[in-house]
Design goal:
The structure holds two protein chains of two kinds. Chain A is an alpha/beta fold. Chain A folds into two domains: 168 residues, Rossmann fold (3-Layer(aba) Sandwich), CATH 3.40.50; 66 residues, no CATH class. In chain A, 38% of the residues lie in helices and 24% in strands. In chain A, the strands form two sheets. In chain A, strands 6-7-8-3-9-10 form a six-stranded mixed sheet, sandwiched between helices. In chain A, helix 3 packs parallel to helix 5 and helix 5 runs parallel beside helix 6. The longest helix of chain A has 17 residues. Chain B has one domain. Chain B is mainly alpha-helical. The longest helix of chain B has 41 residues. Chain B starts with a helix and ends with a helix. Classes of the chains: A alpha/beta, B mainly alpha. At the A-B interface, helix 2 and helix 3 of A face helix 5 of B.
Amino acid sequence: MITIRNISKKFDGHLVIDGISATFEKGKTNLIIGQSGSGKTVLLKSIVGLHDIDEGEIYYNDIRFDTLDLKSKKLIRQKIGMLFQGAALFDSATVEENVMFPLDMFTELSRDEKLDRTNFCLKRVNIINANHLYPAEISGGMKKRVAIARAIALNPEFLFCDEPNSGLDPKTAVVIDQLIKEITEEFNITTIINTHDMNSVMGIGDKVIFIYQGKKWWEGNKENILNSNNKELNDFVFSTELTRKIKGF
Amino acid sequence: MRILSAFEMFGEYMLLLKRVFSKPEKRRVYYQQTIKEIDKLGFQSIGIVTIISVFMGAVITLQTAYNMENPFIPNYLIGLGTRDSMLLEFSSTVIGLILAGKVGSNIASEIGTMRVTEQIDALEIMGINSASFLILPKIIATVIFNPFLSVLSMMVGITGGWLVGVFTGVVSTQEYIDGVQYAFIPFYITYSLIKTVVFAFLITTISAFYGYRVQGGSLEVGRASTQAVVMSSIFILLFNLILTQLLLS
């Protein structure tokens, strides 16, 4: 479980995240939604420690993360998997080397054991016969799946996904969403997903937090998001003509 | 304001070096990375160093010959002039400037691209010291291998001078060899190698620094690459002056 309390972050005096508190539960897909520029990515990067927060507290299970020294943070980070917006695969390494990389760095497994684990992770994300291809040689959807395989290679307790569907066609986006959902439940991971894709929200949103102008504006789940009377949330969720007609605006 | 900015950048550079020279997470992986970098930054520079050295040795021989058309000046001084030019300046400083262009831009653009595509963030999330993992193997590779390039340049340059000297008839083989052996000071080689090692360190760290601090997109990566080459070249010339005064005075 991850808990954040009143976290704030400024860039050049400008408040990007303003006193956000939330709890992200284990085995559930927790979605952070909001318009582009609302502070979602900064919030996610602050939680994983890529940005130092100016105020507030971050807890991984019961351990306060934001005040830890770098060495202790590294230990926590080894329990974190992250899927970046552009997949962030290492260009100079093959698919197999990308997935094996965390195993090389943090385990004492033999070469065969590492290869077994790598193949298991790749199979889990439905990547077959692509071990020796380079990231430049595979599609955007495959890159995302390889990145998920790399993220779960060390059996993480926490999984972060920054806009996992960006740049993907709707069908592939659903596949990636379902994969993240299945992995979250199967391995009992605390998963936090940044997205502005309403299909993701309606498909896998066990818990949804809506960020507006750097503040937590609304919290709920995929069922009650449709019935909310929150104006800013409705403006965001029902932004297209079609959805507005469905809602009856 | 510019002076303050220069001090800030120097401070950032020193902080980056502090991170680079911290304890590696896994020595075996760093060792493998270093071998890869020796191939990429060292072996793949042999071609350009050979071609430029052979032509420069040839041109130095011809220029020395055409500027010494005096019966009182013995021809063997052509060989001596070529040898000293290659040993004292060309094989260390000029090769350093050429490598600043080739290797420096390669390092800055590689690390810069990794930064803007979030590959460096991915390393940090895994709990890896990205500065050390990416930069230390490059420093070790160039500091170890560039002296070999320098010695190769000396040998090839002097040979190039001999070939063109004999071919054009400005000097005989015996005169050239006499000149190369005349008043030889072995310390010149040590001096050249010391400069090469210092230049290798400067090229790698300055280029890595500019690549590592890139923010933005491909335009900024290109700009960082250019800045890396310019600053590496300036510092090579500055340290050439300092080292020459320290070592030869």
